[in-house]
Amino acid sequence: MVSSISKTSHNTNPSKSSTDWSVDSWRNKEAYQMPVYNDQEKLADAERILSRQSPLVFAGECRELHNELAKASEGKGFLIMGGDCAESFDEFNVNHVRDTFKVILQMALILTYGAAIPITKVGRMAGQFAKPRSDPFEIRNGIKLPSYRGDIVNGEQFTKDARENDPYRMIAAYHQSSQTLNILRAFATGGFADINRLHAWNLDFVKKTEPGSKYRIMAEKVDESLRFMKAIGVDISDSKFKQTSFYTAHECLLLPYEQALTRIDSTTDKWYDCSSHMLWVGERTRQLDAAHLEFVRGIENPLGVKISDKCSPDDLLKLLDIINPENVPGRVTLITRMSAEKLRNHLPILIKAVQKEGRKVLWISDPVHGNTIKTESGYKTRPFDAIRAELRAFFDVHAEMGTHPGGMHIEMTGEDVTECIGGSVDSISEADLSKRYNTYCDPRLNGMQSLELAFLVGDRMRKGKGLPPLV
Hints:
The chain is an alpha/beta fold. It has 13 helices and 14 strands. The termini are far apart.
């Protein structure tokens, strides 16, 4: 419980009472960034409907992810989290899901080949609908309406009807998430992810670029290795070569939705939020005594927490007391988002505090959220150079501290969008932003920029092992 946490000491193994948490105990706490629904009866009805739906994911899948993250926290793996800033109802189609899946597969292959460690793949998909907002209202031409909080809450169009918070949108989001998960499972296990098809993962608009060419050269090296393995009797038709594990995650923001999809696992009698394999709590909702940490502390899913330079070492240790009192490896992933300069100054302090207390966490970098700017033409964008600089700082700090840089979390898409400026090849300028600026929310890296980032990280990890560059 929050009230039992000492300001000066941090107990790494307090008992988690089954009587002080319930699936709805978060309702007794202040809930930040939550939409206000005018019709409480409709909200209750939507929650009842959701509570009768089938789980989107299963507890056993969550435990498999937990095990992979535990290994990564020990330096035996690396986590890639990628996908849209916010999913939308209008943009949903199989090709969109497929192309993002392709890029994540490519990034994972680059890093697996580069670092020679297992890569855990997690998509910001099948549930990443809700978005926090700095202001609950938006004003245009003197008209004041509620802010757009993602399709799961209200509509993007600036009209009174669209901006009305509608609880039944949660049901539409559930059904779209179900379809997305069906598509992802088919791609992951139905032959699409077969390592022998690695050339087919290259997107058309990426093929002729430098990152696409580097990927093709690396893929030929992998092909050669596969031919060698086959020649010495390794069965490359085994499922390990033809299938892959792929998990989903989203921000735990809209708590009525999360509660309605939280179930007791029949094999362990423990609670799992079956809306996603993994959930993270954002920078704006990680208050120690508030509703979001109260909810997630009682579920068994792997958890992420976004951490900025505003987080003090003492607050971080208190947070870990709340959500991981038994100090279980793989339970907590700390997602840093600070910008390069702030990260170099602040992250060592946090790492030192966690090391001193012997806490088991996985450190990963979110190099995009701390680097958002607004151009003179009004577009929100993210400079690729700033993203690269923060990732470089993340690896530098962990090298200095003797800790494992365990992953990266990026907003990206498989589409040929022009939303983030820069990149070493076919650099996107501010003037290019209007060409294909398709995001409903924040700017995303396109497939070419995502691959370039993967090669940068892969080469950095190889350098740490004394190996030559990838290509």
